[in-house]
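Page 37, continued from 36.
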């Protein structure tokens, strides 16, 4: 399972796997407890592969951030996402020194670390870029969106910039 198969649903904590499309809903399975649930089709659903983090230069795909954390930790897990605020900011700056501190909020850092640790626990540790034939160019050449009012991590899509 790659990052393109893992979903983030606004308003629902954790990560999910797509199961099926229902009538006016999407059926997903939580990666944490493997419970299936229905999500209204109007919910904001994003693939981890589409999410990017703001940096001083270009936006960096989440898989790259995960890879940098993985290298920093020699393949181990990251610090807990409930660590003190100053510790989280220092840790994230060590893993991704050029992240945009004005547009990447503490809540974003917590999410990234929580997602990384969950994926690490599940043994999903292949954060390499997908081959061109697997997902097409959309995962590689996507345009990054702007941060929403609540400072969510930018979401990237190939067609348009999207606020999360």
């Amino acid at each position: 399972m790659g990052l393109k198969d893992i979903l983030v649903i606004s308003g629902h904590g954790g990560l999910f796997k797509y199961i099926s499309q229902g009538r006016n809903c999407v059926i997903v399975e939580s990666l944490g407890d493997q419970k299936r649930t229905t999500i209204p089709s109007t919910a904001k659903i994003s693939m981890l592969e589409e999410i990017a983090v703001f940096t001083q230069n270009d936006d960096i795909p989440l898989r790259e951030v995960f890879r940098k954390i993985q290298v920093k930790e020699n393949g181990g897990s990251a610090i807990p996402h409930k660590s003190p605020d100053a510790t989280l900011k220092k840790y994230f700056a060590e893993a991704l020194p050029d992240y945009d501190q004005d547009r990447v909020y503490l809540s974003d850092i917590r999410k990234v670390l929580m997602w990384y640790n969950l994926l690490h626990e599940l043994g999903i540790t292949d954060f390499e870029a997908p081959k061109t034939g697997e997902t097409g160019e959309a995962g590689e050449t996507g345009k990054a969106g702007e941060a929403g009012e609540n400072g969510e991590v930018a979401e990237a899509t190939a067609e348009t910039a999207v606020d999360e």
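The chain has five helices and nine strands. Flag for discussion at group meeting. Helices lie at 62-72, 85-95, 106-121, 132-135, 138-141.
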